[in-house]
Amino acid sequence: MQTASDTGPGSYGGGRAPHGIPATAQPEHDKIRRAVMRVCLGLLTISATACERESAGQPAKQPPQVGVITVYPQPVARTTVLPGRTAAVMTSEVRPQVTGIILKRLFTEGSEVQEGQSLYEIDPRPFEAQLAQAEADKAKNEASLANAKLNFAGIRCCCLVSWR
Q1: Each residue of 36-45: pLDDT tens digit?
Q2: Please, what sign has the CA dihedral across residues 76, 80, 81, 86?
C-alpha cells in the first residue's frame, strides 16, 4: 500500500522510479534532465536564429538569365556515316618489264586502262647508252669478221699455192 509520503510530488512509489533509478536519487536525476533540456532548447534557438540571419543578410535571388530561341519547322537532311570497307571487283598486278627511273605517270589513278596501254615513261638515257654500246660492238664484230675473211682468203691462197 502507498502512504502519503510515497505519493507526494517527486515520489514514484515502491521505492523505485519506472526507469530503474532509486527514488532517493530521483530529485538529482530530475535536475540533470532539466539542465539537458535547457541546453538543447538553447542550441535549437541559436541555430534557428543563425538560419534567419543568413537568409536575411543575402539579397533575394534573381532568376537565372537564359537565352531564348524561336523554333520554326524546316526540312532536315538525315545522313548516316557508317564505317565500311570496299573490295575491287577486278584487280591487276602491275610488274615492270624493265628497271629505270620513272619520269612521268601516263594514267590517272583510279581510271580504267586498256591492255597494252603505256602506264609510265621511263628515263631513256640508260637504254640509249646500251643501244649505242651494242651498235659499237656490232660494228667491231663486223670489222673483225671482215678481217677474219681476208685472213682466211689469204691463208687459203697460200695453202693452195704450197700444195701444188
Answers
A1: 889 888 888 8
A2: negative
